[in-house]
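Researcher: Re-running this chain for the archive, since the previous output was lost when a drive failed. Same request as before.
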Amino acid sequence: MAHNDTSRDVPQSVPALLARNVAQFGGKPAYREKELGIWQSWTWAEAAEEIEAIALGLLALGVARGDHVAVIGRNRPALYWSMVAAQKVGAVPVPLYQDAVAEEMAYVLEHCFARFVICGDQEQVDKVIELQDRVPQIEHIIYLDGRGLRKYDHSKLHALADVQAEGRAARPRLEGELVTREGALDFASTCVMLYTSGTTGKPKGVVLSNRNIIMTSKASSEFDRLRADDEVLAYLPMAWVGDFIFSIGQAYWTGFCVNCPESADTMMTDLREIGPTYFFAPPRVFETLLTSVMIRMEDAGPLKRAMFARFLDHAKAVGPKLLDGKPVGMVERLIYWFGNLLIIGPLKNTLGMSRIRVGYTAGEAIGPEIFDFYRALGINLKQLYGQTEASVFITQQPDHEVRPDTVGIPSPGVELRIAENGEVFYRSPGVFVEYYKNAESTAATKDSEGWVATGDAGFIEDGTGHLRIIDRAKDVGKMADGRLFAPKYVENKLKFFPNILEAVVFGNGRNMCTALINIDLTAVGNWAERNNIAYASYQELAGHPRVLDMIQSHVEEVNRSVSGDAMLSGCQVHRFLVLHKELDADDGELTRTRKVRRRIIEEKFADLIAALYSGKTEQYTETAVTYEDGRLGKISATLEIRDAAVVGDHATGKVAAE
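Model: Regenerated structure tokens:
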């Protein structure tokens, strides 16, 4: 499919966008980072100078065109600069998840044959050194933070500052080569390679070109009228496509400033200090923030609680109307203004969301109550639907067309179609080039006309053109009696309760649905404190009878909600248990982006699933776990299994029939 996107006015690479930004707004802040409690800032001109020094240093170290340069660490300006520097010398940046275990890291480093690795600190350096027998091709490790590295063998280990100094010194000798390599970059050159989270099998290396990243950044920035004076907080994993498109793609297209927090622990404080105007967070972040607000309100005095409830109820009725430009009466506006002054404004300020002009969430469905809460506060929170293979954007919600039950209309330049089996397909200028060294998977995902299979089942609404996603296509099945089984639909409804962190629903080919549930330790722990319930561990709290009563009431409320959907009413949960451990990426149960690995959970907890369907009221189990220091262990527990009330004629088909 031909795209008319090679117009002369569009720079053909990220380094070309950088040069344009230096010329257009060289003195404007491009990056900020908080270190030791102080914000440091770099203009576009200063950032370009740092990037050039890294690029020259990489040339001095022998980085060749087409080399893969791995980047591992938390969000820091110097690591973003390193990715752009790699592009300048014709190499390909490959960011890795910094919390990946050694096995996952080794696979990626081996698969992309990285000769150079740039690390944030000692922790990442140690992981790479530990893997050197598995990945002997690694020639040089470059580190940003040298603390703890003084006594290491430095024959292959270099401080990034030293690499830059070497680059600056070698400028007369290497400048010509750098100009040549940068000049050779075009729309077809690879911009970045990102590994999918691998819900099934090994992660795949998604090759994204300059065309993919730049045209998608252009279209999505114009869609939301993003500007050079916008501010973003870069706190999501650098290996995730969303961070790449927000912190490099859109940042370089529009020229806005990328702010890096000091650490994950200070993220909320840093968010308040920056007050971003453009903010993205997965639903889990918005849920956690709301949970913390509600916990604090529980501890407030009666007057404050009453005012909060009164003004929030009013805001829920009026806030979304104001956002959508709908008519609102003078008295209602006045009450909203007053509520904003006393309650809503200070709350938004506490959350660091006073200045948000465009807010997005994606990755999972977000609970309507949570979505409505933020819109009530006057925060323009919207949903998008995307994939690594699409350079993120497939659909977006336009202003004034925001609803919790859809993911919006096709992003500019994106075409959608729904296959006969309900699977969503798309094509766009953002469609990936290929899966690296995996022609078979590339052909299975992308056809000769450029249409990509999303793996998700959904439909386009008549009249609005909005896309609604039901579930992962491979997870949509049928109950034993032929009714539709869509586990994600029910799991998302369960996870809308702050007390439920994770839920996995089973039922394909069975005569009823059952669920494994994880409690949210923060929310349930706070509830336990207020109700004078003592507990010594997660396991003890998860098995407490009153906690099980509470979770049962949530499951039954979800059943009542699901029963109202004629298409999916067969998915009510008949039996459930609360797991004795949190599902964990280190144990292989979740991906690094916190998506459930359903097949692994089915294997690992096969005894518990069998017990749910056998009619038992409890089940003893032993589970392998990985501790934070990498040690392996086992935890055991006897778990109570509960029946939940279901609505309508779905109470038939009891366990004996299984």
